[in-house]
Amino acid sequence: MIPEIGHLALIAALFVALAQGVLALAGAARANLTWIAFARPAARTQFLLVIVGFTALTWAFVAKDYSVAYVAQNSNSQLPLGYRMAAVWGGHEGSLLLWLLMQTGWAYAVSRLSKQLPDAMVARVLGVLGLVTAGFLLFVLLTSNPFERLFPVPQDGWDLNPLLQDIGLIFHPPLLYMGYVGFSVAFAFAIAALLAGQLDSTWARWSRPWATAAWAFLTVGIALGSWWAYYELGWGGWWFWDPVENSSFIPWLVGTALIHSLAVTEKRASFKNWTVLLSIGAFSCSLLGAFLVRSGVLTSVHAFATDPRRGLFILILLTVIVGTSLALFAWRAPKVGMGGRFDTVSRESLLLANNVLLVVTAGAVALGTLYPLLIDALGLGKLSVGPPYFNAVFVPLMIPALLLIAVGPVANWKAAQFGAIFRQLRVPMIAAPVVGLTAPFVLGHWSGSAALGLMLATWIAVSVGTGIFGRMRATRGGLRAQPRSWLGMHMAHLGIAVFVTGVTIVSGYETERDVRLAQGESVSIGGYNLTLVGVRSARGPNYVTQIGDIELSRDGKVLRRLHPEKRNYPASQMPMTEVAIDANGLRHVYAALGEPLGEGVWSVRVYHKPFVDWIWIGCILMALGGGLAISDRRYRLKPRRQHAAQPLPEATS
Fold it and tell me: Which parts of the chain span the membrane according to its record (predicted)?
């Protein structure tokens, strides 16, 4: 009965979403105050109904209701309670329900946190979000119903994929979806502004915190997915250029361009057309990622669905959203105007160059991801595009983008002088080559790629430090006296420097060994000794395991015991490797237990990975910078009358 309640709640949510979309947009167009006022309560009702549906599915998992097909396919009586609850979004149908929960949650947040905005603008934004949500509700109800019954009812479930039986499943998908779906708010603001003919700095200020919040969530989601793959798959890699990884990275790149473009539109009323296109592009890329993961066109440890009907539906949804958005843009764009003008050397021009590099990079990643799929679909054979291609196109595009990170913040708006920029960047210009050319020798051996990476990281980090120090000296105030958006920008840029440092050092100086070890034998790596003390058998809640006991020592001193595992899940008959990692912030010693080779001998894979933690620390700093930026007080104040949106000439009639 409870699953049926959840199903009915989703059906009711569909009707509310359609009413919200149609009445809110029509009310804003006709200045009908009753219909405009309907938008906020409709968004809240829709969120409540989806919560009911989500709770019903969660109850089915907790209660082990195997009459629900989705529960039977993704759960088992032996599965621990925490994983049973996280299994709600462990498969295709539940992940779409999670998407809907996030989608309606963002709309609810807009209805609550946009009280200072004009009611007509909020109605347009919520109307657009309502129509988007209606599309996904149709997708769920017609092709991906999580409440479908199964007869006859099995005695037990088939179990959750062992790869997903990890704490990463609890946090990674929700955070990733918060980023994906969050860009729908920036998209809705852009469409609402186009409909109203109000593309100006006020619109950009309204949209900017929502776009930044989505970007911050997506940053954390991608970082957590990288960490999850690093320790769960047992391969020791933190990024594989997997197509599904790329499907989250592409909207991140476009979203990064968007938040910088919004800054220019807010400050100088420039880039208006470009900012609208990026708003459409960021959400469209999120939908493209959803298509890749759920259409069945990809084979990946991350992919969910294999039903082509689902892929066709979401492809149609993507086409409708992108097509209507671009048609509206083509209609309105000629009326927008150029906005504030700027010289060739200015902060605007530097940010534009940054945007172009990010979008071209996103296009290059998309090409490498989609081209093999297109070749396969046309029957022209199989083609594999791997890390060599992505590294070859990504790195050259990112080098100038990283250089611009230091230059942009010190350049003046509208017009800048090379001499003034040079004076403010003298210290980074000296520090970057000194560190870049000498640090590789300290790390063990000199490498051109390591020197370049460390030079770029130092260039960014020192420019952040000198920028903060210079502003504090000029304003005679401490950090608390500075605008949070400005501090957030520098924190995010510092995160990029930390990230680049981690990537550079781990890529150039990691070591790996695959060895055969018997009890009492040792292997040396990175100045550490790892001795196999033994392997014992044990049972978990829903698996049996072989647990290694490896002694980690250095210079004869025992540091700790590592316990990698080789698990087997009887319900699914799948083996899994659980690695053991010793970390101290500057390096990882990573051990993975392989296969038994007979007579007490085991294959063991060990890694020494210097500074690998800095990759994820850098991502966290980026996301925290975004969070700090959106807490700026100007996003919490009611806009002044003189900044009210000015409609396009056509909209005044």
Answer: 6-26, 47-66, 86-109, 121-142, 177-197, 209-229, 249-265, 274-292, 312-331, 352-373, 393-413, 425-443, 449-470, 491-509, 614-631
